[in-house]
Amino acid sequence: GAGVSQTPSNKVTEKGKYVELRCDPISGHTALYWYRQSLGQGPEFLIYFQGTGAADDSGLPNDRFFAVRPEGSVSTLKIQRTERGDSAVYLCASSLTGLAGGTDTQYFGPGTRLTVL
Amino acid sequence: GNSVTQMEGPVTLSEEAFLTINCTYTATGYPSLFWYVQYPGEGLQLLLKATKADDKGSNKGFEATYRKETTSFHLEKGSVQVSDSAVYFCALSERTGGFKTIFGAGTRLFVKA
Question: What's the mean pLDDT in A7-28?
């Protein structure tokens, strides 16, 4: 079956612009996660959805970042007034339930490389 | 807060050498522990996991044991291959509203033929 897909694969934008990054999770997975990976670093947690609701958004760095998952499937990460420091690879992952004692396997998408000029 | 520390790379080994990548963690509760691998040009994928103390996770010849007393989860493989060249991430999963995963910085492994 299809894995997690993310679009676009690359996004170049100018400082101050608004961007949207899309994630299509594996069908039937109720949990969805967004991470940000800077060069040479591990993924950094941003937000976690259980169904349509954000169960934990403690990793969002500031109020320029927002994510939605209106129908419990596709999710969009939105970044307003982009800054050069937002440049990174944004990873999305999904898992079947997200609640199985933390043992639920997360399946990662290929990521969106965001470059803010 | 909870955190994961793993040895810095790059680690360069010859084929068939023994591999150890050290990982230690800080957690207030009883997290699940994971090793993820990122092969060149590919996405992150789960390599192995352990959910409680003294559990051993294993896959593809790799193994790691959840050591609560030393808060460690070191990755080992008895004989590495060139195809094992990748970046390896140690991670823990902690309960918040659901479960979120905290990753280490990654260790790049190069295996020479």
Answer: 97
